[in-house]
Design brief:
The protein has helices spanning 2-17, 25-32, 34-61, 68-76, 78-111, 119-135, 142-165, 182-191, 197-206, 214-240, 258-290, 295-311, 317-346, 359-380. The protein is mainly alpha-helical. It has one domain (2-380): Amino acid/polyamine transporter I, CATH 1.20.1740. It is globular.
Length: 381
């Protein structure tokens, strides 16, 4: 039973972490250099594992189920809650914008053999389908999402492996054009999976397992995606070099069989479009139930805000991911650390059950997120 729960928890965390973020990592290798990206992958694999454990400690210590703004209000006060709420809202709407931009991009790749379609037409069609599904309250089966994710990752792993057969060591010597902090936001955005932690803790409680099992779950569930990202990024960049594209796959045209690349476009599109619909519903429910928006207001915000951002000039999904990771994910990470540090003050006699980290090390992490977040934002612009 314990082994099964462990694997179920690891699968939950991996499923939350692996999303759209890793698609841009080969491009990050091109822009900022191989070794800088490998450093940030290794650094954040360790750092994010600790963050997941911090969050696990917070969930274990607190009665009831809350989102990050709720924990912030309980432990840091109303002033911090407002800060966390703004960050949270920007994060969920930013996620919608990323899915919209990526979805339209891969939609364009799919229909390219039929001719040139104006980008605005593809954007409108993708957005219209998403809006109809939202207003109809359509929900994809979780089993469909699971098997689609498994199939997508399997295909992408195959393509990465084939990329190694075309590997050119000279690509590792390409001079980077961006600074060392360019990957900061992209890698952080791709690796954080804090949303799964409360669900994992709840699973352990239901199955009456030792809550300390969250430690190996967080370690395995964070390290495994980091290795998958490394394999994917090195395989793609090693084959495409200076032709590496923002989406990771377009640069492989002419290097790997065309049908295989088209299959990657198709699977990426299906994965993104289902995630977009699912995320729309999740954001709608969050606005309606957690933030008490009326149903019409929540629907209009979810439907129209992402496309409004596009018409305001937000077109580059790499920039959006980089800024979200460097700014918003860094802010959320700092808040998690501050809550962790306040547990023993707010709960007299509390004894850490998940992880114990010294205050100097925790403050060092905060400093790194401050410096790295600012530098990462600047580099992402």
């Amino acid at each position: 039973m314990k082994t099964m729960i462990f694997f179920e928890g690891v699968a939950m965390l991996i499923g939350t972490i692996i999303g759209s973020g890793y698609l841009v990592l080969p491009y990050s290798f091109l822009q900022a250099g191989v070794w800088q990206n490998i450093f940030w992958l290794a650094f954040f694999a360790l750092c994010v594992t600790v963050l997941h454990l911090f969050y696990g400690e917070i969930v274990v210590a607190t009665e009831g189920q809350h989102r990050l703004p709720g924990y912030v209000r309980m432990y840091l006060g109303e002033w911090a809650e407002g800060f966390a709420t703004i960050s949270f809202l920007l994060g969920i709407f930013g996620g919608l914008v990323v899915y919209l931009l990526l979805g339209v991009h891969f939609f364009g790749q799919l229909v390219a053999p039929l001719g040139a379609f104006p980008y605005q037409v593809l954007l409108f069609l993708f957005w219209l389908i998403g809006g109809v599904m939202l207003f109809a309250n359509f929900k994809f089966s979780t089993k469909i999402n699971l098997w689609l994710t498994v199939a997508t990752l399997s295909l992408f792993t195959l393509i990465s492996g084939l990329g190694f057969t075309k590997f050119d060591p000279a690509n590792f010597s390409i001079e980077p054009v961006k600074g060392a902090f360019f990957p900061f936001g992209l890698v952080l955005y791709a690796l954080v999976g804090s949303l799964a932690i409360p669900e994992i803790v709840n699973l352990l409680r239901i199955e009456r397992q030792n809550l300390k099992l969250i430690k190996p779950i967080a370690l395995a569930g964070t390290i495994i995606p980091a290795f998958i990202y490394l394999f994917f990024a090195v395989g793609i960049f090693g084959a495409t070099g200076g032709q590496t594209s923002q989406d990771g796959f377009s640069g492989l045209v002419g290097i790997l069989p065309g049908w295989l690349i088209y299959g990657a476009f198709l699977m990426a599109f299906l994965e993104i479009i289902t995630s977009y619909f699912t995320f729309e519903v999740s954001v709608f429910q969050t606005l309606k139930h957690d933030f008490k928006f009326t149903r019409p207001t929540a629907l209009l915000l979810v439907a129209f805000l992402p496309i409004t951002m596009f018409f305001l000039g937000v077109h580059d999904f790499v920039k959006v991911m980089g800024i979200m990771g460097a700014a918003l994910t860094s802010i959320d990470s700092i808040l998690v650390i501050l809550i962790y540090l306040s547990l023993r003050k707010k709960i007299p006699g509390y004894s850490y059950q998940v992880v114990r980290v010294s205050r100097p090390l925790a403050f060092l992490m905060i400093g790194l997120f401050v410096v790295g977040g600012i530098a990462g934002c600047i580099m992402s612009l």
